[in-house]
Design a protein that fits this description.
By secondary structure, this protein is of the alpha+beta class. It has one domain: Umud Fragment, subunit A, CATH 2.10.109.10. It has a five-stranded antiparallel β-sheet with strand order 10-9-4-3-11. It has a four-stranded antiparallel β-sheet with strand order 1-2-12-13. A hairpin with a 7-residue loop joins strand 3 and strand 4. It is elongated, with a radius of gyration of 21 Å.
């Protein structure tokens, strides 16, 4: 049976319209609902391993900009690098506006209290930092892997503005293409 040319045109037209609608949905979803971030590098080991995929709820960023919700201490956030605006980084907020941070003898103190960091590897040594106060509208971020030459964070580039934070990494999705046996226990879990 031969298809009528009108039906062929109609089929192609529907395919084009469906593709455009799918593309529009994907753009809205990734800009306003969730973004997908692939972790590169070792800076957040052991919390995030290279190749893992994190979902970043973008709506939280909009709530922050409206003054409804703020990112807080211990949140793992995704932001534009202050050194290279084309790159994004993922780090943990350890201090918020008005906090005083000091790193002494490898330990982080916020407002004079030792920061409890259960997410760190026990062998982690943090380089010392003189006491500084976090400016209004800014946060201080650190990597979970703080070995020298492994990562750049606020110890190197300073405080980052809240406005550069594009979202909080909320959920890890295990990537099916990376070492199945060793990462199965990390599949679909909330980042802490």
């Amino acid at each position: 049976m031969i298809k009528h040319p009108y039906r062929l045109r109609n089929t192609w037209w529907r395919l084009v319209v469906n593709f455009i609608l799918l593309l529009a949905f994907a753009l809205v979803f990734t800009n306003f609902v969730y973004s997908i971030v692939i972790v590169q590098g070792n800076s957040m080991v052991p919390t995030l391993l290279p190749g893992e995929i994190a979902l970043v709820p973008r709506y939280e960023t909009w709530l922050h900009r409206l003054g409804i919700k703020n990112f807080g201490q211990r949140d793992v956030v995704f932001f534009r690098s202050p050194i290279d605006q084309k790159r994004h980084l993922i780090k943990r907020i350890v201090a918020t506006p008005g906090d005083r941070i000091i790193i002494k003898d490898g330990l982080v103190y916020i407002n004079g209290d030792l920061l409890f960091e259960p997410y760190l590897n026990q062998l982690t040594v943090t380089t010392n930092l003189p006491e500084i106060e976090i400016s209004p509208g800014k946060v201080f971020v650190l990597s979970d892997n703080r070995r020298p030459l492994e990562s750049l964070d606020s110890r190197h580039f300073g405080q980052i503005p809240f406005g550069s934070v594009e979202g909080r990494a909320g959920i890890i999705l295990w990537p099916p293409f990376v070492n199945f046996d060793n990462r199965l226990h990390r599949n679909i879990r909330v980042i802490k």
